[in-house]
Amino acid sequence: MKAFQTICRQLRSSKGFSVEPPTRVDFSTSSYSCSRKKKVNPYDEVDQGRYSDLVQSVLSSRGLAQTPESLFEEDNLLYGPVSKCKPPKQDEAAKVPGNWCPLFNPEKSMKPNATSTPTIPLRIPLQRNTIPSVTKVLQQTMTSEQIFYLERWKQRMILELGEDGFAEYSSNIFLQGKRFHKALESILSPQGDLKERDENLESGYVESVQHILKDVSGVRALESAVQHETLKYVGLLDCVAEYQGKLCVIDWKTSEKPKPYIRNTFDNPLQVVAYVGAINNDANYSFQVQCGLIVVAYKDGSPAHPHFMDSELCSQYWAKWLLRLEEYTKKEKNQNIQKPD
Predict the structure, then answer these.
(1) Which pLDDT value is given to residue 209?
(2) Catalytic residue among 198, 253, 257, 267, which?
(3) What is the distance between the alpha carbons of residues 239 and 272, in angstroms, rounded to a whole number?
(4) Catalytic residue of the set 195, 251, 257, 282
(5) Quick check: is 238 catalytic?
(6) Closest CA to 197 of 211, 209, 185
(7) 255 has a pLDDT exceeding 80
(8) Is 251 a catalytic residue?
(9) Over 90: is that where the pLDDT of 303 sits?
(10) Domains of the chain (ranges plus CATH)?
(11) pTM assigned to the model
């Protein structure tokens, strides 16, 4: 190595000779470093000329805006054809009932006079006859979705309680509702027993509706039957009274689950408007009702949820009730035709 450096110095000092610094060469004693090969880029081996058109078309398409059609084609290739579902059914409110009858009776006064206002609430007994009741019409015309959820709830309860347990549970629910209505009837009636009223105040359901009862006055009817003389149906309403100054058909309900919205009450609004329409077309009632009220009470005494229905909302539900009544009438006719003589 020293001899090599000496020769280089002599050549630099000689005229006419120029020696560039030698390129640095790293020596390694590692056999791995000597044997390591340089990585080869596989794309360098691709025939660029052969695929230049394809590359250009791909690059040029990036800047183009995609249209809905191109997106659908792309999704179709990636995920398969679109499975189209049936369009949703039109709302029943958009349909016009063939059995149309006005909810409000123009022959009855909207504001009852002193002579038409009973001092003692009406209690007309329900006559059992062939005319269908509001409850029966609603039960016979439930939608398939309503039937499905009702049956699923029933099966879940039977699985949890057993057949006998579920029967006992249903009986208890019925008795609790009956006692609750009896208690309210005693509280709202001017002829009610004071001792019985005090005992009823201990009920959780009654405690639940205390803030509602403060706004109820001018009771006109309690547990009284109604009949629509034109549409031919009957019912037994809970109460007709003024709520916050407006005359209403009041329907008292009990529930184990909170029902803060009127949609949680299922067919109860249809039941209320059916009673409203019946009162307005029943000669036994000299007054007319334009509003409804659904009160959902709770056993634990928590504040009940009141669902007030003004005249506009009642009119909307009235159209739906007429459709259900029309459906029931058609079913009954078809069953009568199929029955053998």
Answers:
(1) 96
(2) 253
(3) 11
(4) 251
(5) yes
(6) 185
(7) yes
(8) yes
(9) yes
(10) 137-336 (3.90.320)
(11) 0.69
